[in-house]
UniProtKB/TrEMBL annotation:
It comes from the Bacteria. The keyword Transmembrane does not apply. This is GntR family transcriptional regulator. The keyword Transcription applies. It holds the Pfam family GntR. Residues 16-84 form the HTH gntR-type domain. It comes from Candidatus Allofournierella merdipullorum. One of its GO terms (molecular function) is DNA-binding transcription factor activity. GO terms for biological process: negative regulation of DNA-templated transcription.
Amino acid sequence: MNGFWEQIVIDRSVPIPLYFQLKEAVKRAIKQKQLQIGEQIPPETQLCDLLHLSRPTVHQALTTLVSEGYLARNQGHAVYVANPKVSGDFLKRLQNFSSEMHQAGMKPSTQVLRKKIIIDNTNVNEQLGLPLGEPCFYLERLRSADGFPLVYLETYLPYKRFEGIAKVDFESNSLYDTLETEYNTPVYCAKRQIEAVNADVHIAKLLDVPKGAAICFVKTIGYDQQGVPIEYSVAHYRGDRNRFTVTLYNGQSL
């Protein structure tokens, strides 16, 4: 058994529910990597004896951690430390990947797989409102957090508007920051379309998931302040490591 469990202190003198104290102790241990991804949690009965807690208290703590995504149960009902999911607000605001990962307490990294100028993609030119044959800049990246691949991203930009952008090091520079600071063209707003797909062989290899695994497929068109398309991207997000949040309002109250 991991020595962490013997170090847990449950304070019965404070007005904090016992299950909550246990839950927070386990959550801290996961964040501080005292408990590793995939590590099995001791059986509830064993934790009851070790911590002198009732079975319902231990069960509530573990069940809450499962619902929050810190723990998971397998088909045999064993509980283990789950793969971390990144909660993203990208459905309601524009934010660069590195900033979002830092806010989540994770270390971001980007691998540029390819970048080139293309002139023969009819669909891309249509999405960007460009005449057929006009060149586009193509940027292919694999983005990770804490060493785990999260998203495979392909981005297209109108090259005539962003000439020279192929020289930028996008492993250490944000695309959105580059557009704003180097070209004075921030992405003002964007439309995103999301659908569930299964990973093909190529995507599975890049994201380190089994073929057929659940993937969130996201198409984005970014616009400048005049409503002109300046970015078209297609992204494949790992379904087991990403969680997307959106806030909804009652239309009658707006």
